[in-house]
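Intended use. Records such as the Checkpoint protein Rad24 entry shown here are meant for training and evaluating sequence-to-structure methods. They are not intended to support clinical decisions.
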Amino acid sequence: MWSEFYAPSKVSELAVHSRKVGDLRHWLEESFSDTKLSKYRKLLVLTGTAGCGKSTAVKLLAKEMNVDVIEYLNESTYKYSNEDEYGESTSKRFSNFLGKSATYKPLSFNNERSNKQLILVEDLPNVLEYTTREASHDALRGHCLDGRTPNVPIVIIVSDSGVRGTGGNADEMVQTTNRDVVDARMVVPRDILDGPFCTTIHFNPIARTFLKKHLNALLDRHRDDNPYGSFKRPHDEAIDVIIDTASGDIRSAINTLQLASQMALPGSLSTSGHKRKAKPLSKSTRVDMEKTLDVLARREVSLNLFHSLAKVLRNKRHGFDDEDKVCSCEDLPHVSLPEHLEYKRRAPSHVHPTRLYEDIPVDVETYLLFLSHNYPAFNQDCDDAAVVADALSWSDSTYIGYNDSKQLSASVFEYVIRKTLHALPCPSIKRGQKIRKPAFFFAEKERRNGIESIKQNSRLAVTIHGQVDTNAIIVDTLPMLSRIWEPKDIEKSLRNMIQFGDKRFDNLKSDIIAENDNEIPEDENTDIRNIMNFTVENNEAKLHTLKDALGAIDLHNYDNERYENEIDEEIEEFSD
């Protein structure tokens, strides 16, 4: 395969963004340095879509830094057995591998091995199984917390994956992990992932410009290596189609390019003789080329989030947009409508809802959340918007409690998409609309951070009757404090808690989705309206804290003897 034969041999040949390579290099340099930071560089988690260069970047940087890479291979991938010939269970194999790799160095017979070594875990254990997952968590926890062994960093590769259409509802998606999805929080225990010994670096899908440059360089290299071979160079427009369908997966793009180069793809150029300038393809040739590439690539890749939303919101139909795109409508039987329903007739749509369901890169709930945030800008009037809103409301009520059903998710998706396509105007109204990310994710992040801050402070606020219930603080205490105390008299951390309950997200400036977005990053710098915009003057007066609000005990300054006497008095009163 070209993806292996023409794999990069040095860091400069990588198609990964230089900033990500720099972050990875910086972490590796710190892990092998003699500084105090080296003891905290024990575990690195690389996340991202498949084919974005995670493991290749690690291996090339390790080679450049003269670091030996010890790669873990999951034997259960290659043989069906719960125990190997030595009686070692699959749940303990990973733990034993980490322990031996961190303690003993590989044998060297030619003195070429380095003193520095790195453990690369790409073939993950079966963390979907409870026993194996707990054993793997214990192994990683022991490796990070054990200070007796020399520092041998571990790099874990976690590629984004999941079962299409079953990601749970949007509320659960930001809080829990789906049982069918292997992500960083399932591979690494939460206390280690959020602790000082673990670092996470996310690799984005390969950018379009990097992909095109890399594919053209690969074709030139293959032409030079095989001057007399049977090789047809695909047309530039064919390469653009391959890049569009790859969605940032360079491995998939190279495999599709190899197949396209070994067959008589319409518009391909012969590499024999001098290089000729490619002429623009005719409409019929372009159609044949797109059909051939669709057969080669459509089962390996999915539409990115931007294009999958734009296909629905732009609502292209047969007879309106045929000059730039050939109709791929559903083969539906012609049904004559009665006169009173003739106004509901629509031309065949370019969007195939069943294929769209197979190609969306996110679960159904997330896709419909993005659709509900963006559809109002593309409607012509309130009546059309009401039809879409009714379909989305029906999907919410139907999906509750049944989000694990794949059949239901497919049916709900097709119903909402068909209702939306029927309601949206055609041709699409162009007002310079932008597809934006919902404010839900930022609001949910703020909610989690606020609750976590309240929990942290409530642990320190111990009253004479014990620890205060967190829900009571959120529901009863905080809403009243802003009416009892002046903002300038409230301590800053408590003031932030009060603000948490009063934030508004209705005029949130949502980010515009880029064409290469396959992920849903959290909005870090989002401008929201804060109705409690306090300006506190510096003064020497004591500011009110959560302890004051709850009448809590200061455990550090409280007189133990006095506390015991008060407890004894309360016991006597209760006994009487």
